[in-house]
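fyi for ur records
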Amino acid sequence: MSTALQNLPPFIDHLSEHQLGLTRQAPRVLQVNIGKLCNLTCVHCHVNAGPRRKEIIRRETVDQILDWLEGTDIEVVDLTGGTPEMIPDFRYMVKRIRAMGKRVMDRCNLTILNEPCYEWVADFHAEHGVEIVASMPCYCPKNVNEQRGDGVFDSSIKALQTLNALGYGTEPHLKLDLVYNPNGATLPPEQAGLEVDYKRELKAHFGIVFGQLYAITNMPIARFTSYLKREGVYADYMQLLLDNFNPDSVEGLMCRDTINVDWEGRVYDCDFNQQLGLVHGEQAAPLMVWDVNLAEWQKLPILTASHCYGCTAGQGSSCGGATV
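which gave:
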């Protein structure tokens, strides 16, 4: 084992050394990972998603999740994947959630808007007020194509222009936010300054406008871990995360007010824990979301592991970007 990994203390112990705890708040967000089917195969993907994956949510599971959700005060449903729009019941799911008066946030990869048979996506999102959080790793073609595949940059620009034409980024009820991930084993730059750069460059060169930029750290999980090990920098990256631990980031961690659910209904603290199998309950009898009592949920400990250093490094990282 490398010196760097030997020196990496358990995350929960590291919090204790800083007189910090990790406690839950009342859940505000239900994040549903609808499965691993995706039209892209990105280097940084913590889900190992791709076009050949078969894991997708079924109608029966959708109904069980939404029947439970309807009786809660949860405000936001965050749909992620994979590519959420590729599941057969995506539109059904969105319509049911919006009928409850809850917000729907779709983690969209943009290129799906230009795929055959998915021409409906942009208009459907606008009609139902779906909030879009779109992956756009850079405003330069080279970086985007290296991370996500050839042609992805041009397709993403076309999709953003389509969304802008529908009012996304300008109409208050049509939120359009972008996500930045570093292209490699580095931490994201300061989010506010990078957002200024994105807005300037995308507006000047393509006429594109958007709301906020979320700078998200690449998590040492699944495909990105394979990349780190292939490049021989896994231990260095873990040490980078540890060296940049920021105590101020803990207060805003997403695991504190989010319930994460997989395509079969099992419950986790975050999407990263989901990919590592850190399920609540027993592996043979996991806790299912429709069995969750929210008062009891707030008493459960948040499960942690070494990847949690990714959410607490530098400016912090969450599904909503920087936490400090």
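The chain has one domain: 10-15+39-310. thats all i got for now
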